[in-house]
Amino acid sequence: MHAIGIDIGGTKIAGAVVDELGAIVRSERVPTPAGDVAKLEDAVVAMITSLAADEEVAAVGVAAAGFIDAAQSMVYYAPNIDWRNEPFREKLEARVGKSVVVDNDANAAGWAEFRFGAGRMVSDMVMLTIGTGVGGAVVAGDRLFRGGFGAGAELGHMRVVPDGLACGCGQRGCLEQYGSGRALLRMANEVADAGGVGRALAKARDEHGTLDGRLVGSLMMAGDAGALTALRELGHWLGQAAASLSAILDPQRFVFGGGVAEAGELLLEPIREAYAEHLPARGYHPEPDFVIAELVNDAGVVGAADLARVWVDEHA
Ligand SMILES: [Zn+2]
Question: Is the predicted pLDDT of residue 219 greater than 90, yes or no?
Fold first, then answer.
C-alpha cells in the first residue's frame, strides 16, 4: 500500500506518494505560505487531496521542524510556524478523511535513512543532519526513539562546552554552536582572520563581501588548506559528540546528512579521529562506522510516509 509523505520546510512544502520500498511514485511542491497558519493548513490539505486523487493510500505522514508529542499528533512548538500546542493531526484528519501522523522533520529524515538508505543494515543508528543547525535522529532496536514526551533526540542541543557559545534554544555550549553549517562559517572566518592558511578564504571574503556555504564548500573541494582547517575543527566537535552518544546509545552506525555532509570523506575523517580520541573505554568493545546519508533531498517525505505506514500497521 502506498502512503503520502509531506515535508513542511521553511521555504517549501514537498509532498509525495511513496511506495513500500521507499520509491517516490509522484511528487509535488509549493512555496510555504510564510506567517499564515490557516493558509499553510489549506496548502497541506490541497496537496494531500491532489496526491491522493488517483492513488490508493493507506495514510498520510507530515514532517515539520519542532517539538511534536509522542503520539505523533500535537505540535507543541514550531520554530518557523506560529504553532503552539497545535492539534495538527486532528485538524488534518477531519479535513482529508485519512489517518494522519505528524513527526519531527529530523526524525522523518533519520527514519528514511534507516529504512531505505545508509542505515538499512543495522538495528541501532544515530543520524546527525548538519545544515544551518544540527538535527538529530535516533533509531534504537529497530524503532525510532522519540522520548517519553516526544521531544527527545534533540542531539544538536546536547551540551559540549560548559558555558560555551549562546544557542537559539536559550542555553549555552550546545553542539549546534560547534557542529553546524553556521558554526563552519564562523570557523572559516576565524581562519581567514588569522592569515597564513586562511589567505584564500580572506580573499574570497573580500571579493564577495562575506563567506557563505557555497564559497567555503568550493574551496574545501579544491583542497584549500584554510577551508579544510575549518572543516577539521567542525569534524572534531562532531566526533567528540559522537563518542558521548556512543556511551549512551551504542549505535552500529552514525549517519551524517545535510548540506555540510556533501564534503563526504573530508568531513568523516576528522570525525573518526576525534571519535577515537574521545571514546570511553576504547579497545574494549566493537565500534560503529561513520557514513554519509544517501537519500538527501527526499528523506523527509519518504520518512514521513513510512512512519505513517508503520503507525497504521501497529494500530490496525
Ligand atoms: Zn541549544
Answer: yes
